[in-house]
Write the structure tokens for this entry.
Amino acid sequence: MKQTNQQGFSLAELLIGLAVSIIIITTTAVTLGNTINIIQTGTNNIDLLQESRWALSLMSEDIKSGYSISTPSNSFEGHSLTFVKPNNLTQTITYAIVNNELTRQVGSGKKVPITNATIASINNNDFVVKNINNSAIKLTMTFTTGAVTQTITETIFLMNNSARLGGN
């Protein structure tokens, strides 16, 4: 019997191999793209949570040591917060939104951003302060980045409030 030469690929085998390779590469590329998107969304969530918790923590520590809330007035809501804090000399602290960032101002000094708008954007409608009988405030802040939104609400009591200390 005569032996045929079996070296090489036929055109049909080559096309089938190429089609299978293209399917595998396409599936891998789509999966990799989806994985990158999921990782980026997770990173944005973490950054947003860290930024919002940092802002709330700083504000909470400041507010707790305060003793008089100027803005908003008693039992009203507002989009900025001003209170008096004892620190050798009496200091007025103001928190407000400027260019989608939460800012902190001491006295008549410069407004210093405490959040980064590229990480966690916040606007006036997302920063609501409710004065509760001049002894506590209820903060509601909504931070956004891309499609991710985080709302934080916390009631903070003033430790040095004259009403709590038995004063007026």
Notes: The mean pLDDT is 82. The chain has one domain: 34-157.
